[in-house]
Write a structure and sequence with these properties.
Elements lengths: L22 H9 L4 H8 L12 E8 L2 E3 L4 E8 L8 E6 L2 E4 L1 E6 L3 E8 L4 E10 L5 E4 L5 E7 L19 E7 L2 H4 L3 E3 L1 E4 L5 E4 L5 E5 L3 E17 L5 E9 L9 E3 L11 E2 L3 E15 L8 E11 L6 H5 L4 E2 L5 E2 L2 H4 L17 E6 L9 H15 L9 E3 L5 E3 L19 E6 L10 H17 L7 E4 L2 E4 L1 E3 L11 H5 L1 H16 L6 E3 L12 E3 L12 E3 L12 E4 L7 E4 L15 E3 L21 E8 L6 E8 L7
Parallel strand pairs: 2-10, 24-27, 24-30, 25-27
Antiparallel strand pairs: 1-3, 3-7, 4-5, 4-8, 6-7, 8-9, 8-10, 11-21, 12-15, 13-14, 15-20, 16-19, 16-20, 16-21, 17-18, 17-20, 22-23, 25-26, 28-29, 31-32, 33-36, 34-35, 37-38
Helix pairs in contact: 7-9
């Protein structure tokens, strides 16, 4: 492994496929606060890292250019980034007010198509398009000012009004309120806060103020809702901070308490940030932004705020689903299929990816227990994560409600990779318990279903529920809470303290459910010189066969020290040749190392096949070991003497 500059990785001997940057040292530097530019210029002396340039917008238009009050107008534009990233903020500003553009389609080469579809009142309107890449670059069309249009007239009384298209049964309805432009903030109460020209208009502290509060006007919701999600874009330099609170009102005009809006703990994007869903019926809402200055009086900036109102009440209720039969699990628990709880597969765009399962991660949805039906909550979570957060599907593999219903989450079946724990998504099952369990105890029906389901999942995937081991890059329990692998509070203190008893109860249920195993035998050749091996399996009572974890050879050539060993023909070897040590060869390895990738949480036996012409020499000929790819950890080792060889 070649490197010409000091490296903080702490390793002296390393094997690698490249030269220059050490990935382990780069991680240490990143943890110390160095930027990617700092790291690149450290390892590659003299290189220049160009700053990202602004994206460009094409095809900006409104169709049709005119119409009446019944016309559906489509505002659309294509955004392309030199580095292929989607914009952090994409708005069309109509008559001075911002509306979120929806990412419809596109790719890295042609750019990303964004649209907003709406009806407009009678009059002459103006519009402009606004994109922010989150790196300080703004793309506007037109670059200055606004574009005229569309013009909207009264409908012709002689032309029948179009018949509204009925909403399909089970459809999830969602509408947004967006505050981003100067006019959007107008009308609210400003206490030590003002609107400046950052972006298309942003909230900042007034000069000389260290704290300030902006309170919005009372906002009529665009539709009656049961779920409320928030997306925002802000900057908080040098110790400054921003917090957000929301309150809602249901029919009758009684306002609820102010509720804090926190960033979702499975939100790994740098910006814009998203909250978890708040649940509760509402027809109106209000929010307030609290700004706190940082070092030297620097002000935070709130540039963009989107409140998403979701109505997912159309569809089967949790009580109805509890009384029906669903997808059988491996043993006895039942899972409510996606089609049964009402998943709209038209918004699923994330292709499945699979991994062997080695761990189970428990979450809570951090939503207060309300009177909202749990099945409607599942539909809302699915829509919010798939469409609003643009994941293409719900991130959890399964969800469990307070009645004990278990819902199929991420599409794809057993072993499919979800989106719930960052780098720990691969090889894990993410199970979300619907509710907020920071201070509230999980319902007994929920816990009973959870341990039933965990028992069958542990049986299916050969997981020890009370075990632990290396998972991804950390020593972790096989059944863990989200906070064990990165979250701050999930799955809530109350649920987290129950994990030992959950593991124990799961193990107990496994013993009761599994019963005696089937009989069976397998016949396989001890050695093979071909890549195709035949297995003979027999059993009188088995219903399925599961093979052991995979191993895959990398296929790279054997490596040896220079001027050591000699290649000879060997018909018994798979590749037809072998390497023979020669008298006088220098010390060190003359054969190997040979690397392979092994699945985690499994036991392996390693066989070395060697030949030696003399089986009587009581001298050490070699040292056989199995180590990691950096030589830091030796898993097994034994010396090899001439007396260990038997005559052919």
């Amino acid at each position: 492994y070649c490197r010409s500059v000091p490296c903080p990785c702490g390793h002296e001997t390393m094997y690698g496929h490249g030269v220059g940057m050490c990935q382990h040292g780069a991680r240490v530097l990143a943890e110390q606060g160095y930027t990617y530019v700092d790291i690149l210029t450290h390892y590659y002396s003299g290189v220049e890292v160009p700053s990202p340039v602004a994206g460009y917008v094409s095809g900006a238009a409104v169709r049709p250019a005119s119409g009446d009050e019944n016309t559906q107008f489509t505002f659309e534009a294509v955004y392309a980034s030199p580095i292929g990233d989607l914009p952090m903020v994409a708005n069309v500003i109509i008559d001075g007010r911002a509306h979120t553009l929806t990412h419809v389609s596109g790719d890295l080469e042609g750019g990303w198509l964004y649209q907003f579809v709406t009806r407009l009142p009678v009059g002459e309107h103006t519009h402009s398009f606004y994109f922010d890449d989150g790196r300080g670059h703004i793309s506007r069309v037109p670059e200055y000012g606004v574009s005229a249009g569309p013009g909207v007239t009264q409908p012709d009384p002689l032309i029948p009004t179009p018949t509204p298209i009925p909403t399909p049964d089970g459809a999830v309805l969602a509408e947004s309120i967006v505050h981003s432009a100067v006019l959007d903030w107008a009308g609210g109460a400003f206490d030590g806060v003002s609107v400046n020209s950052v972006g298309d208009g942003a909230l900042v502290l007034q000069p000389g103020r260290t704290e300030g509060v902006y309170t919005s006007t009372l906002l009529a919701a665009p539709l009656p809702f049961i779920g409320l999600g928030v997306t925002w874009y802000a900057s908080t330099p040098d110790g400054s901070g921003i917090s957000l609170e929301v309150r809602t009102a249901a029919d009758g005009g009684v306002w609820g308490a102010w509720r804090p809006i926190e960033r979702s703990e499975d939100d790994g994007r740098p910006a814009p940030h998203t909250s978890d869903l708040l649940f509760g019926e509402g027809v109106a809402l209000q929010y307030r932004v609290i700004l706190a200055g940082g070092v030297g009086g620097v002000s935070p900036t709130r540039e963009y705020l989107r409140l998403v109102c979701i109505d997912s009440r159309s569809g089967p209720t949790a009580t109805e689903l509890a009384a029906t039969q669903h997808l059988p699990s491996t043993g006895g628990t039942t899972v409510v299929r996606r089609e049964a709880w009402g998943a709209d597969e038209s918004i699923t765009s994330w292709p499945p990816e699979y991994r062997l399962v080695g761990a189970i991660i428990l979450h809570h949805t951090a939503a207060e227990d309300t009177d909202v039906d749990p099945a409607a909550m599942v539909r809302a979570i699915y829509y919010y994560q798939a469409a609003i957060r643009e994941r293409g599907d719900v991130g959890y593999n399964y969800l469990i409600d307070r009645l004990g219903n278990i819902y199929e989450g991420r599409a794809g079946g057993s072993g499919v990779v979800g989106a719930h724990a960052g780098r720990f998504d691969w090889g894990s099952i993410g199970i979300a318990l619907i509710g907020d369990y920071r201070q509230q105890e999980p319902p007994s029906a929920m816990l009973a279903s959870l341990t039933d389901f965990l028992a069958w999942q542990c049986i299916e995937h050969s997981i020890d529920p009370e075990g632990q081991g290396v998972f991804v890059d950390a020593e972790l329990p096989t059944i863990m809470g989200h906070r064990d692998c990165g979250s701050l509070t999930c799955p809530g203190d109350r649920l987290y303290t129950l994990l030992p008893s959950i593991r124990s109860e799961t193990a107990t249920k496994m013993a009761k459910a599994d019963g005696p195993g089937p009989d069976g035998s397998v016949a396989v050749p001890e050695w093979s010189k071909t890549t195709s091996v035949s297995f003979a399996l027999t059993s009188t009572n088995a219903v399925a066969v599961q093979f052991s974890n995979n191993w895959v050879w990398e296929g790279e050539e054997l490596r040896q020290q220079e001027n050591s060993g000699q290649v000879i023909t060997d018909t018994d070897a798979l590749n037809g040749w072998a390497r023979v040590g020669r008298v006088g060869d220098q010390a060190g390895y003359w054969h190997g190392p040979y690397t392979c990738e092994l699945e985690r949480q499994a036991d392996y036996q390693v066989y070395f096949r060697l030949k030696n012409p003399n089986s009587s020499a009581a001298v050490q000929l070699a040292n056989l070991d199995v180590a990691d790819d950096q030589g830091r950890r030796v898993y097994a080792s034994r010396p090899l003497f001439g007396t260990h060889f038997a005559q052919d």
